Input
Amino acid sequence: MVLVPAQVAAWVGVYRRRPWARWLYLGVAAASAVIGLSAGAAQFSYEWAFPAAVNDVGSMVAGAVLALLFLSPAAELFETRAAVPGPAEGRPPGGAGVPGPAAG
Output
């Protein structure tokens, strides 16, 4: 139940291309895998084939999303953006609407 808000936050962050979102998505996916493995180890009941297949497809989709977020050219969209260059980096002092240094 704790992972549901984190999963929703990760989805929203990925949709809005936030730098922290892919790491949150990775953490939620890892935590879900650990919880699923530990719950499966204590459970010895029969599982229907269709729900198990849907769960497997969901796991494969999550893996594909993680691969896209970290290994594809789309990963550059989630990098932190560089700061706006100042006068030392080539931008003229006192850009649009900002007063520059007093001429003296």
In short: The two ends are 64 Å apart (CA to CA).
